[in-house]
Specification:
Length: about 150
């Protein structure tokens, strides 16, 4: 289980935000999973951040549709459409105090999209395998460029 270490009750608010982000990863039997904890990538204004979460693979158009449209009783303050899916990343705006609750919603939505996708049949397995291979090739290409540019 993944947890932050050395928690302190008197830590500054930003430090508390980063401790909240150190929650366990979502684990599911099959389908798309979170590939790590949420990461603050930009401070938008006082107490407001852009946060991103990596997924285990790039979702198909069908999976994205299921993520956005098949959710039961989502929070009116944080609907699925508040999450942007770009490649294998999820991004959303939040304040530090809401990260844990929003991640719980996102985990539920991921799980539900996986369940609905599995119900659609096995034709998706081949597409998923092809996407996974394509994603691995892209990551290798990016790593190659980053290694070449490392000393620039």
């Amino acid at each position: 289980m993944y947890r932050g270490e050395g928690k302190s009750s008197d830590a500054p608010r930003d430090a508390v935000f980063f401790e909240i982000c150190q929650e366990p990863y979502l684990t599911t039997y099959e389908g798309i999973k979170r590939a790590g904890p949420p990461q603050a990538i930009q401070k938008l204004r006082e107490e407001s951040y852009m946060v991103q979460v990596a997924l285990s693979e790039t979702p198909s158009a069908d999976w994205k549709r299921l993520f956005y449209e098949t959710q039961q009783s989502p929070s009116p303050d944080f609907p699925p459409r508040a999450v942007d899916i770009s490649g294998h990343l999820l991004r959303f705006r939040t304040d530090a105090a809401s990260v844990e609750a929003k991640m719980a919603w996102i985990d539920r939505w991921i799980e539900r999209a996986n369940q609905k996708e599995a119900a659609m049949g096995e034709k998706l397995d081949e597409e998923r395998r092809r996407r996974r291979e394509e994603h691995q090739r892209e990551q290798q290409e990016l790593a190659s460029f980053n290694a070449r540019w490392e000393k620039l």
